[in-house]
Write a structure and sequence with these properties.
The chain has 14 helices and 9 strands. By secondary structure, the protein is an alpha+beta fold. The chain has a 6-stranded mixed sheet, with helices on both faces. Strands 2-1-3 form a 3-stranded antiparallel sheet.
Length: 405
């Protein structure tokens, strides 16, 4: 597995490097085309008609052909720019993901330790008391620095501490028939599986995605443009001195000679994490994303595949929706299922709420449950529930959400 991920991150990093080389080569070839076109470059998008002279038609046609030959070149592969789930976690803590090459070096480092374990597996013995006294506190300290210091999330520390307590108890009170080693191994497997099963059945206990509780989707779907600083170099005519200025001096021609300029990136800005989130009415195709995110109280029934949602859960949500809408809440179904199928299911299950189309990948990112329920106030994600724990309207009201309306 470690070898596979090392290869995968190397392939991804190489893909990005090759794509950068391709883009640079394409830009260079386009520059050559521009030089070859000369005066016809500015007319390459025009379509000559009878009013053009023959030499003009020839010049524009030849330039357009050369331009299209380079412009239509395609790299042919789509590259990944970060390292997925761990990258999402880093974005929520240090503000950026690992680059593909950083992820590759991380995997190589981990693979080294895996290889040590593999080669030395016959020499590995159960820790002695002295080993435990040294290794267990050191491990807790490392996890505390990593989880608490880097991610500001202490659950991994407490999870590991409980695991260590279980390990020490099983080491002392092991099942004789299984032996000490197997008792501890099975105990740790059960402990880890229980946590995994809980997250699979409900929702991950930590969410680093842009749709996590507390995030404003209007903010998360808006790009932050880069901040640029423009500077211009002039030569003072009277003294011959060269100076850099932030703007052109008034009537600069009389006192200065313009030489060149440069642009500095002060802040690279940010591509919106939820830029692909949108919702369009199934009936008309109208995009209502921004207007819905401005609503005071709104529910999203997220269901990437409506045909796979349990009918009983859909009927329960229909009852919830009618009660909520009667008290002024808005309720929308977000799905990527084809409109004809959505309409058929709505009719067969008597679902009386508005259905909208959204991207399947986005819906799976929003909530990893089919269906899942999200509650937003003025675009801010306030709560969410998986399909295994959908609330009824009375239990929702009992949590005093309605008091802040």
């Amino acid at each position: 597995m470690a070898l596979f991920f090392a290869w995968l991150t190397w392939y991804t990093a190489s893909c990005n490097d090759n794509h950068a080389t391709f883009q640079a080569d394409k830009a260079e070839r386009m520059k050559t085309v521009q030089e070859q076109c000369g005066e016809w470059w500015d007319y390459k998008d025009e379509t000559p008609d009878a009013s053009y002279l023959p030499e003009e038609v020839e010049g524009i046609t030849n330039c357009k052909a050369k331009f299209l030959e380079v412009d239509t070149l395609s790299f042919g592969r789509e590259c990944v720019n970060d390292c997925g789930c761990f990258g999402d976690a880093l974005k929520g803590s240090i503000g950026r993901s690992l680059t593909p090459w950083e992820s590759f070096y991380k995997d190589i480092t981990l693979m080294f330790f895996v290889l040590v374990l593999l080669v030395q597996q016959n020499k590995i013995k159960l820790n002695t008391l002295k080993d435990d006294v040294v290794l267990l506190p050191a491990s807790l300290l490392a996890i505390a620095l990593f989880s608490g210091g880097l991610f500001s999330w202490w659950f991994p520390f407490w999870f590991t501490l409980i695991g260590i307590i279980i390990y020490l108890l099983l080491k002392r009170y092991f099942i004789t028939k299984l032996g000490q080693d197997w008792t501890i191994a099975i105990g740790m497997i059960i402990y880890s599986f229980t946590f995994t099963f809980y997250c699979y059945t409900y929702l991950p206990i930590k969410d680093f995605r842009p749709y996590q509780i507390g995030n404003d989707l209007m903010v998360e779907k808006t790009d932050i443009p880069p901040v640029l600083k423009f500077e211009y170099e002039f030569k003072v005519i009277a003294t011959g001195e060269k100076v850099w200025l932030d703007a052109f001096p008034e009537n600069y021609e009389a006192t200065h000679e313009y030489l060149t300029n440069k642009t500095t990136i002060v802040d690279p800005g940010r591509n919106a994490a939820a830029r692909d989130f949108s919702m369009s009415l199934i009936e008309t195709g109208e995009d209502i994303t921004d207007s819905v995110l401005k609503l005071e109280n709104v529910f999203f029934l997220v269901c990437y595949d409506l045909s796979k949602a349990a009918p009983a859960k859909l009927k329960a949500m229909n009852t919830f929706a009618q009660a909520a809408m009667a008290e002024g809440y808005y309720f929308y179904l977000l799905t990527s299922t084809l409109p004809d199928k959505v309409n058929a299911i709505q009719q067969s299950e008597s679902l009386n709420f508005t259905a909208c189309l959204s991207d399947e990948k986005v819906l799976k990112t929003m909530i990893r449950s089919n269906p899942g329920l999200m509650y937003l106030k003025r675009g801010v994600v306030t709560d969410m529930w998986p399909g295994t724990a959908l609330p009824d309207y009375e239990s929702f009201k009992s949590n005093n959400y309605n008091e802040s309306r």
